Amino acid sequence: MAENTVSALVPFDKGEKLHFIEENGNILFTAEEVGRHLGYGDPAHAIHKLYRSNQNELKLYATETKTVSVDGKLRETRAFTEEGVYILSMLARTNKAKLFRAKVALLLRRIRQERQQRDIELARESGYRQGREEALALSRVEDKKALYEAAGAIRDRFAGRYFDTCSIVNARSGRCSENCKWCAQSAVFKTHVQEYELIDEESCMELARLNAKYGVNKFSFVTSGRSLSDKNIDKLCEYAVKIKQEMKINLCASMGLLTREQLKRLKDAGITRYHCNLETSRRYFSTLCTSHSTDEKIETIRHALELGMEVCSGGIIGMGETIEDRVDLALTVRELGVKSIPMNVLNPGTPLEGAAPLADEEVLTTVAVFRFIHPDAFLRFAGGRALIAHIEEDAIRAGINSAIVGDLLTTIGSKVIE
């Protein structure tokens, strides 16, 4: 609908019509329309008189006088938002005021539902790139079932129905110098996590064989700490070469803030994907970790991409962040060109364990919004799956299409055979 065009709807009984203006996505009602439905003999004059007498209450909810077209005729009028109409109906002393107020509320609810459904259908059919405001609007859609179904349809169309799996080995545990509040591996906090310098070769090989046997696509070396020493990198590269020689499985690594040269050594050893979670928005990250920054993580990701490696990067929800933080994370990851996005739910056993648990609807809505932003990516179940096991199937319908299988870093996951 064009800006400042007056449209006619039939939301009331007995064919009674209500005109409104749609301007830049906002719904406005003219003084004449409001006055007519309130039962005034001279509608526009009566509403303008009410406005002049109550400007303090109404000025935020009214436009300046403007020229609009009603049934082909140009008229000078002032227009009012939904809130303005409500206030006018409260100020009016007419028999129709209460009924009109109720009817307008029902009409606007209907219009919003129709628009939300339209927006969902548009995104599903075209797969257009969601902006920040569009994504936030989707998170507020009331019809959650329609939102989840549309997200699933986007996944089917742009990513197909293939389900990707990967598994991790906790190759170095605990003793981390960083102060990330979400992590049980930090030496700054007392979390009683198991500690060891580096997994032995045979244990690592056995885990890789098990995952290869059951058809897991990727096997990832994950180490605690800000980064990894050259000595330990060389050792894990030796493991990687032997795994590639013996079995058919792709390799991934998550070893902190490595240099470009260190990343190249991983790639030369047969590791094709590097993982580095951004965790949350840049704004919120600084409240949870001060020992390193989002920019340092992004620098590592860009080094990996420049070397031709794939990148896996996502975050954690349930740390006290807002939906705006989650959307900002999703958009940043998209800007970097990431196509594998782990979605973790905060686990107990960290300094943040007192955070309020997420409602099922909030988890599913987050998954769906991420899918709208990333039509063709792998959205990956990761840490905290046990907390949402009862909605796993719903999350898959809402857009999830991959998972980390087997035990996770410091918590139990799902068995590889499952």
Helix and strand element order: EEEHHHEEEHHHHEHEHEHEHHEEHEHEHE
Estimate the mean pLDDT confidence.
83
Uncertain runs are 1-13, 408-418
The amount of beta strand, in percent, is: 15-25%
Q: Give the distance, in angstroms, between the N- and C-terminal Cα atoms.
A: 51 Å
Number of strands: 15
Class from helix and strand fractions:
alpha/beta
Rg over CA atoms, rounded to whole Å, is 28 Å
Q: Biggest sheet: strands side by side, in what order?
A: 11-10-9-8-7-15-14-13-12
Helix content: 40-55%
Q: Major sheet, described briefly?
A: 9 strands, parallel
Total of DSSP H or I helical runs spanning 4+ residues? 15
Mass-distribution shape: elongated
